Amino acid sequence: MLLAQRGFRVQVFEKQDVIGGRNAEVRLGDYRFDLGPTFLMMKFLLDELFAEGGRRSTDYLQFKQLDPMYELRFHDRSMLVHSDPQAMKAEIERNFPGEGASLDRFLARESQRFEKLYPCLQKPYGTLASMISPTLLAAVPHIAAGRSLYDVLGDYFRSEELRLAFTFQSKYLGMSPWDCPGLFTMIPYTEHAHGIYHVMGGLSRISEAFAQVAREEGAEIHTSAPVKRVLLDGRRACGLELESGEKIHCDHVVLNADFGHAMSTLFDEKDLQRYKPSSLRKLRFSCSTFMMYLGLDHTYDTEHHMIVFSRNYKKNIHAITNGKADLDDVSMYVRNAQKSDPYGAPPGHSALYILVPVANNTSGLPWHEYKERYRAKVLQLLRESTPYGDVTPHIRQELVITPEDWEKRQSVFLGATFNMAHSWNQMLYLRPHNQFEEFENCYLVGGGTHPGSGLPTIFESARISANLICEKCAIPFPVAKPLELALA
Ligand SMILES: Cc1cc2nc3c(=O)[nH]c(=O)nc-3n(C[C@H](O)[C@H](O)[C@H](O)COP(=O)(O)OP(=O)(O)OC[C@H]3O[C@@H](n4cnc5c(N)ncnc54)[C@H](O)[C@@H]3O)c2cc1C
Predict the structure, then answer these.
(1) Helical H runs in 60-101?
(2) Of 159, 274, 460, 475, whose CB is crowded by the most CB atoms within 10 A?
């Protein structure tokens, strides 16, 4: 969309028969679901991307800010998380007496961190010199070096469960709060400061809206058009060969395929230097997800987003990180979109989306065996630990996706749904570069490059790579607005 808006002739080749990748729509009979993302954060960035082409996001998408943002269910209590600070403080006080005022400290300190760190996510780190840019240097006092997300939250909140209420967001990065770098307090901060949005019709509408704008700007989008390999002229990318045998020659190649998948399928091993398929497993990858999409002939007056914590969350996360199945004590996320949006299910019905974080495929878990066991566990948890009760008699449509399916059907390397982990040694200059270091004229976008996984960050990766292409071609492009203007 960005390149088409800036005057490039763009062709998109998508393997699947629908666009969107992880952010595509899933249809089961009369029910519609988002395949992956359900939380839209930092909507201001989406607005800016549409505004760049003289458009308004609201001409293409209808947003609904959620308040309460979500419900958290612990084994002994349940808590509503509000974006309104007064309501949130009252809810903290109700559940964790004496800790309500800590929210003000969290918001005040974290707004400074966000202000300094966010501009670092908008720049490329293709050279070592970029690591000493004034923007990055100004952010250094705020990076919480050597501290985990869980540690940093301890600066504000005493109770274990309250800390978890602000750290479970590391799920978006597929990491454990005890491993995840402390600077990612940015995620809970931006939720509380800028809100969480639903897109009417589902977040997959965002992908469809990007495609619509791209087409309006002359881009051609080919679905069911798998790419077989990237064509090279020495160390320069010069086109694509499709599975159909057709060859497409072009000036610039932008790779959006999952990074590990692209490295293991789109190049010859001999042509790769740093990211050879045989060395990819030395990188750290995120966890995976076990998914259930249920079309139900019943409606539920439950929150739009509900997170159910396992009794021993740390043990559960530890098992996932270490490639183990922890069927006794799982955590799960349930999304009841019909709470806010009638689209997606016939009247009187619901389209329930359930996500269970699980180990990625380095675990070697036999999913043909575990699939039924996880399914039974999810249904049991819904029955025993949530207001949904026994949904089994209401199931009219059902789809289950395991880590194996993510890898085989959705081309996600190791089924690591949130891509490469966001550890210190895999960020900024140490993450695959937006101007891909292996080949000239080859650019990366998506969760495998800088800044990383999650919708807002992959949108930034697209903007960074589009800017780099424009710089190379000496084509002027709009500079990202300073944060205070983007938020205005
Ligand atoms: C279950 C789940 C829940 C999530 N929840 C959230 C959330 O609530 N909020 C949030 O912000 N983020 C969330 N995320 C993360 C977010 O979805 C991802 O970071 C983002 O969508 C990844 O985008 P991408 O472009 O990197 O990859 P993808 O969306 O996977 O895009 C890659 C595309 O490349 C295509 N492709 C691969 N190989 C080829 C080939 N050879 N030829 C042609 N095409 C090919 C694929 O079909 C796919 O369409 C979630 C992710 C998952 C999986």
Answers:
(1) 85-95
(2) 460
H or E element at residue 333: strand 332-336
| Ligand 1 pocket, mutate which of 210, 256, 290, 417 (most atoms under 8 A from CB) | 256
Q: pTM of the full predicted structure?
A: 0.97
Which residue, judged by its Cα, is nearest atom 34 of ligand 1? 257
DSSP character for 15? S
Residue 115: pLDDT over 90: yes
Q: Say how far apart CA 63 and CA 293 lie, in whole Å.
A: 23
User: Is 350 in a helix, a strand, or coil?
Assistant: strand
Mean pLDDT of 302-320: 95
- Give pLDDT, residue 170: 87
pLDDT at 19: 97
| List of residues 6+ apart from 146 with CB closer than 8 A | none
Q: Is the CB of 465 under 6 A from ligand 1?
A: no
> What pLDDT is stored for residue 77 in this prediction?
92
| pLDDT confidence of residue 42 | 96
Give the Cα separation of 457 and 264 in Å (integer): 24
> Is the CB of 39 within 6 Å of ligand 1?
yes
Contact 244, 432 (CB under 8 A): no
Angstrom distance (rounded) from CA 468 to CA 265? 25
- How many other β-carbons are positioned within 10 Å of the β-carbon of residue 322? 11
Cis bond upstream, residue 451 (ω within 30): yes
